[in-house]
Amino acid sequence: MTAAAIHAAGVRKRYGDFEALKGVDLDIPAGEVFSLLGPNGAGKTTFVEILEGFRDRTGGEATVLGRDPRDGDAAWRARLGIVPQSSGLFEALTPVEVVRHFATFYPDPLDPERVVGMVGLDEKRNARCKSLSGGQKRRVDLALGIIGNPDLIFLDEPTTGLDPQGRRQIWEVVRNFTSLGKTVLLTTHYLDEAEQLAARVGVIIKGELVEVGSPREIGGRQRATARVSFAARGGLAGKPLPEGLSAHAGNAGLAEIETFEPTRVVAALTAWAASHGEDELPELSITRPSLEDIYLRMIADSEHPA
């Protein structure tokens, strides 16, 4: 069994009468990308800062890379990479100068020139940081998080402010790191980002980790109904559907069928269309609830329990 890079058991945090964390249990094995999801104020930042050693817990136990974060020493901290939501830059320095400077803090850093290229700043390597765009400054943050060649990286919304191409470039950096056996704890509000990168996701709501699973399984997603939709036009307009099927009007006037058996439904519809002289089902699509759909439903359920 792979050793846990992060182990938390019953982790609690209380501020006076307010309990920000209510006994969080979580194990993240070495080499995994794990994404922590949750609405603002759910306890994500508190939990991550406890694991990073920046905040003390009220109760429970935690180990990160084999050490209690409460008493992690300099050697332990050198094995962590932390990319916060925002960080101050040395505005008068260039990206390569800042990265070279931070490399001196670590016993076994990566090559600063390589890291600047990895995060997509080759063309801005000699520009002053004060002249960089918000997305480019975010790339500098990421470079500073990985320059120490960490075993565990905490990424707090790492692609905020980046365009789609920039986001995908950062995703590739994360994938390259995990291919080397590194562990990543990612917090993000981009659900597609969690789905692209994470082997598992955890949803934290009101201080409780309500569910952990793969992006395909979380919240019963793999068991959710599929939606088969098509445009009933041409020779199909006004024709009754095959026996046992019923549709309702969806977006843009499409006919929609909810089903647990989309393959059977499509086969029946294809035969039905052919019987009316149509070789194709116009605008046919099959969709299942996205990770975002499931996530929003879980939050809604927590706010309005049955």
CATH level-four homologous superfamily name of the largest domain: P-loop containing nucleotide triphosphate hydrolases
- Give the distance, in angstroms, between the N- and C-terminal Cα atoms: 39 Å
The radius of gyration computed from the alpha-carbon positions, rounded to a whole number of angstroms, is 24 Å
Q: What is the CATH first-level class name of the largest domain?
A: Alpha Beta
User: In the residues, how many domains can be counted?
Assistant: 2
Percentage of residues in DSSP E strands: 15-25%
Word description of this protein:
It is a single chain. The protein has 306 residues and is α/β, with parallel strands linked by helices. The protein folds into two domains: 4-218, 3-Layer(aba) Sandwich (Rossmann fold); 225-287, no CATH class. It is built from nine helices and 13 strands. The strands form three sheets. It has a six-stranded mixed β-sheet with strand order 5-6-7-3-8-9, with helices on both faces. Strands 11-12-10-13 form a four-stranded antiparallel β-sheet, with helices on one face. The protein has a three-stranded antiparallel β-sheet with strand order 2-1-4, with helices on one face. The longest helix has 15 residues, at 164-178.
